[in-house]
Amino acid sequence: MDVTLLGTGAPQGLPRPGCPCAACATAVGDETRAATALLVDGALLIDLTPGPAFAAARAGQSLAGVRQVLLSHPHDGPVLEVPAGLPQPGRVADGRELALLDGHRVRAVAVDIPGTGYEISGAEGERLLYLPPGAAPSGLDGNGRPAGGGEPGTGGGPYDLVLLDVLGRPEALARLRASGAVDAATDVLAVHLDHEVPPGPELHRRLASVGARAVADGSTLRVGEFHAVPDLPRRTLVLGGARSGKSVEAERRLLAFPDVVYVATGGTRDGDEDWAQRVSLHRERRPSSWRTVETCDLVPLLAAAGSGADPGARWPAEASPLLIDCLALWLTHVMDEVGAWDDETWEAGGRRALQERTDALVAAVRATQRRVVAVSNEVGSGVVPATPAGRRFRDELGRLNAAFGAECEQVLLVVAGQAVALRG
Predict the structure, then answer these.
(1) Per-residue pLDDT tens digits for 405-415
(2) Whose C-alpha in 19, 64, 374, 390 is 20 to 30 A from the C-alpha of 5?
(3) Are 233 and 18 in contact (CB under 8 A)?
């Protein structure tokens, strides 16, 4: 089963007409995108892009063989053009299934916004799932398929190809992963791409960080054919200064994964309104499905195979990711415990005790089977602290970051909200 992407953009396209933003200004060449539309084996057209006949011709395709045109969402972009000779576009009711003469089976999938997703099966059993812009499946059945009925035995298990709004609804990908509808071999393609993320390297970097990719308009894909799925690092360290965007970057990297455990090392501070506000903002950003654990006892969490994942979930419990925010607060806590702030205690055994604790943490990171994203402050480029205790903290945090980063497949530095890869 071949799928040609006549467009890969949001309904208004990219760049948006008349939009002066930086993302639209730099959307040129292969990064320009018409509204998303799929041509399946030259016979089935899903959604319409402005000028579909020209879009098909640019991709080396023809619409002459199209026998069915299906729409997935209420159209809010340019006026739809239905070329002469094409069947009148329609929608399929949720749960209904079409058997086309050329051997394709199309099943309508319920989504959580106005619109319809489509599960398409080819004659040789290959399967793809297409979701409309801004949509997530409204439920999942016992076979790990998006709910909506259909005949029993018509599919199940992971899809070969999934096309969805990865950047707009990353939790939709998390749900599909949790159900087993998407696994490590599924080709996850981002469509409905809008101007919220700059095109080019930044777009592809963000997609790769959640195991997805994007292709140019006009690309043809063979469903079920091997594609190089982005290699997701098991361990990532995200560094940055104050208000650099490091926590947002770390959180973004796990939005498309289920069963995330957010490890808050800062705890609570009675009477500190500024700290309470910071904690509140972090909580509001996090998906409601994430669990929060407030602790500085990181070694047992890293050593655990899982942490409370649903036993019935198809996404294995041992894969439950950890987001640790942050190592600087963990170090502060440990330095409190070993008496590192007092010079005499520090020389009498505090230094050795701190080294033992950091060595244990680094060893646990090296051995962990869980996906880990950790956040830490980069303080070595700032003003030299005025006190011996401040300089001690700066030095020890630099050593901790270096040792922790050495065990990570990927290390990022975030500056002014922009992530720069230092490793991986």
Answers:
(1) 999 999 999 99
(2) 19
(3) no
- Which residues are within 8 A (CB) of 214 and not within 5 positions of it... i.e. 6 or more apart? 8, 189, 190, 191, 193, 203, 204, 207
pTM as predicted: 0.87
- CA-CA distance, 237 to 375, in Å (whole number)? 6
What confidence score (pLDDT) does residue 153 get?
A: 32
Non-local (6+) Cβ contacts of 372 within 8 A are 234, 235, 236, 302, 321, 322, 323, 324, 365
Cis omega (within 30 of 0) on the bond before 21? no
pLDDT of residue 99: 85
Q: Please identify which of the residues 75, 204, 227, 282 carries the catalytic annotation.
A: 282
282 is a catalytic site residue:
yes
Q: What are phi and psi of 356, to 5 degrees?
A: -65, -40
- Summarize pLDDT for 94-137 with one digit per residue, the tens: 888 888 867 889 999 999 999 999 999 998 889 999 999 999 99
Q: Whole-angstrom Cα distance, residue 245 to residue 201?
A: 18
pLDDT (tens digit per residue) in 273-321: 665 566 666 666 678 889 999 999 999 999 987 544 443 343 444 458 9
